[in-house]
Write a structure and sequence with these properties.
By secondary structure, the protein is of the alpha+beta class. The protein folds into three domains: 1-215, Uridine Diphospho-n-acetylenolpyruvylglucosamine Reductase, domain 3; 218-327, Alpha-Beta Plaits (2-Layer Sandwich), CATH 3.30.70.2190; 333-417, Alpha-Beta Plaits (2-Layer Sandwich), CATH 3.30.70.2740. The protein contains 16 helices and 18 strands. The chain has helices spanning 5-15, 24-28, 51-64, 116-123, 142-148, 155-158, 191-195, 229-241, 254-264, 287-300, 312-323, 325-328, 348-362, 390-407, 426-429, 432-445; strands spanning 20-21, 44-46, 68-71, 88-91, 98-102, 107-111, 128-129, 165-171, 177-181, 204-211, 213-214, 218-226, 248-253, 274-282, 305-308, 335-338, 366-371, 376-383. The strands form four sheets. A seven-stranded antiparallel sheet has the order 15-12-14-13-17-18-16, sandwiched between helices. A five-stranded antiparallel sheet has the order 5-6-10-8-9. The protein has a four-stranded mixed sheet with strand order 1-2-4-3.
């Protein structure tokens, strides 16, 4: 649809020239998120500076029946902010205020555009931090984290965004501003919990109150080297079965190791088939004994070497290698598409075997990066979008990987969301009645379907049926 000139002027009046983007070059920045297999341009982007401006923008769109899509930093990787047939994009990147820091009550309230890592920086001098740490934490923002219920390497012990969320300020799809609090009072429904992970289909986060954690007294980070993923998977199961819950338990296969070693020069062995990054934290007393038990479990699972980060600099470089592994993939191929399935920990060898078979059949290299402790896999399908039909093979291979996850008792996503990428697979995990019940919930918040339509569900009852263009490669 084409926006009426009067609406365009009114939107511009709300956000000012600095918050209004409608040039061809400016809009190209917003054509996709980290899922580059599909792209679409909005007619315009508005960037409110505060909650009041965002509410006024939404009220204008609601009054005119114009669909709109929220966007944070654009680091999502499932197309959750793809503006396909959605003329107005509402970005929260200018909403960057730290509203309050309350160390005594271990909380902080920040606006939606505050970068994840900045939350921890605000309180580190007081000995606190914000636990959810997506790999994109130096760029992703809190509003997007709430929308996707983001996790990260330390999810295993500390949980995802919803586990650290104390309250949300949000704008409903009709423009009303509401607050959803989460306190120790268990009376009533946890609406903030319902909203978290709804991928922008129930409204737009404008601010969040977050739980702060005290920094652990001691931290030890280990690197265990294995001949292959099967042996590393056995070590994962053995560690958890022993009653040990590491702060993080990450796995990288040989292809990922090749890329990150070339990029960051940590010192990964060139002949390693897989490595585990294992982080233990807590009270200093007893941590050494716990490290010994973890090392024993790794060696019993055929680890050729287990080493500890010698100091904070080495630990930081090891985590840099892991958290920036996605970017390092550019050394192996011009493009990649990452998946986000989940399987039971005990089924990691089976899903890796399935991925290898799919890789061979589709003639595509696939690297494996995993939050192994909770069975969250991130297969990275490598490709070159300049090759004919290669992008379509990537999408097909990704769908087969996710289908295999479901067959093994897992799920379609652990932290990246459904977006547009996995819509066609929802029926493999949920019955028609399940999907209808979830759509009923969405419609209670978003009855007109104007707020981020064409996401998560195979059809939009309040809107048109999804008819997206075929995937094309990303740049």
């Amino acid at each position: 649809m084409t926006l009426a000139g009067q609406l365009r002027r009114r939107l511009r009046d709300v956000v000012g020239d600095e918050g209004f983007v409608d040039s061809a070059a400016g809009l190209r920045v917003y054509e996709c998120d980290g899922y580059t297999m599909e792209k679409a341009l909005p007619e315009l982007v508005v960037l409110p500076a505060n909650t009041d401006e965002l509410s006024r923008v939404v009220r204008l769109c609601h009054r005119e029946g114009v669909p709109f899509v929220p966007r944070g930093a654009g680091t999502g990787v499932s197309g959750g902010c793809l503006p396909y047939e959605i003329p107005v994009m509402i970005g929260t990147s200018r909403m960057r205020k730290i509203r309050r820091v309350d160390i005594a009550n271990r909380l902080i309230e920040v606006e939606a555009g505050v970068v994840n890592l900045e939350v921890s920086r605000q309180v580190e001098a007081a000995g606190y931090y914000y636990a959810p740490d997506p790999s994109s934490q130096s760029a992703c923002t809190i509003g997007g984290n709430v929308a996707e219920n983001s996790g990260g390497p330390h999810t295993l012990k500390y949980g995802v965004t919803v586990n650290h969320l104390l309250g949300i300020e949000m704008v409903l799809p009709d423009g009303e501003i509401v607050r959803l609090e989460r306190t120790n009072d268990i009376t009533g429904y946890d609406l903030a919990g319902v909203f978290t992970g709804s991928e922008g289909t129930l409204g737009i986060t404008t601010a969040a109150t977050l739980r702060l954690m005290p920094k652990p007294q001691a931290v030890t980070t280990l690197l265990a080297i294995f001949p292959g993923i099967v042996e590393a998977s056995r070590a994962v199961s053995a560690i958890i079965a022993a009653g040990i819950v590491p702060a993080a338990l990450e796995m990288m296969d040989a292809l990922v190791i090749e890329a990150v070693e070339a990029a960051y020069r940590f010192g990964f062995p060139p002949d390693a088939g897989a490595v585990l990054i294992i982080e233990l934290d807590g009270l200093e007393a007893g941590l050494e004994e716990l490290c010994g038990r973890v090392e024993d479990a790794c060696r019993q699972a055929a680890a050729s070497e287990v080493r500890r980060a010698a100091n904070e600099a080495e630990r930081a470089l090891l985590w840099k290698s892991r958290k920036r592994a996605f970017g390092a993939m550019g050394r192996l191929a011009p493009n990649y598409c990452t998946q986000d399935g989940v399987v039971p920990r005990s089924k990691l060898p089976q899903i890796v075997e399935a991925i290898a078979e799919i890789s061979s059949r589709y003639h595509l290299r696939i690297a494996n990066l995993m939050h192994a402790g909770d069975g969250n896999i991130h297969p990275l399908v490598l490709y070159d979008d300049s090759n004919d039909n290669e992008a379509e093979r990537v999408v097909a291979a990704g769908h087969e990987i996710l289908t295999a996850c479901v067959k093994l008792g897992g799920s379609l996503t652990g932290e990246h969301g459904i977006g547009v990428e996995k819509i066609e697979l929802m029926s493999k995990s949920f019955s028609d009645d399940d999907l209808s019940a979830m759509a009923d919930l969405r419609d209670a918040f978003n009855p007109t379907g104007l707020c981020n339509p064409h996401k998560i569900f195979p059809t939009d009852r309040a809107c048109i049926e999804i008819k997206r263009p075929r995937p094309r490669g990303g740049g």
